[in-house]
Predict the 3D structure of the following.
Amino acid sequence: MSALTPSTVANLRGDSRSFNPRLFLVNLDSADERRAHMLAQLQTHHLRAHRVGIDCRSLSRQQISVAAARRFPQIEFAFDLLSGPEIGCWMSHLSAWTAFLSSEAGDACVVVEDDVVLEPDFVRTIEALEAQASYDVVFLGTSSKNLSARRRTAVNGVWMHEPKGAIYNTWGYVLRREYLHRFFAARPLRLAVPVDHVLGGRAATTRPRVAVVQPIVVREEPRLSRASQIAPHTWRIDRWRVVEQTRRRFLASRVSDWFYAWVNSF
């Protein structure tokens, strides 16, 4: 079971001058290159973060079930709909959330993944968003383009746009403490879709109020992001490689720019 004993809340040192107790990095023990990539950026931004990561890729269903029951006994994971790596991804994010709730460090936490680029305005943006109370989840970046041009709110100079439909990706987000209390209080608490589907508004229960910052301050690092760390996936169509590749090509095209410019104007 050594794969399930990561440095769940270990400090990832960037610069001791600015330690943010509400900042979490999702990074598996085996992902050395990704960790070095993020550490360099944290140093640039004079930040430190807590590292969380639970790797279930090489574990049996029984091993994952035992570990999940030990860590999160109140949560039922749908093993018929989620793969082992997806449950590991869920438990990584849940570890960040529970660590934040066990502290008294403010009203919101920040979670980022390890295959992203932090833009120059990253620190200013997360500091501004920690004070907002209009949304439960504010995404710091996403590949989704379905963002309303009209339904938007500004806080301390940072614009938050409401999505028209669901948002995908968990590159980075700000999550309010009050929402986490609601999430963990839900009964029954059964997780049957990936974490980005729940945070992005696709789940029927504990659906959060969602917004996306514009311009984004977290984006994918193209080379690192090509190698998925939650494969192999389940049989769900949304996880088929051809579907993901088609979606990526469409979002990168001018056709999608024209389409979403029209849709988002209403």
In short: The first helix runs from residue 32 to 44.
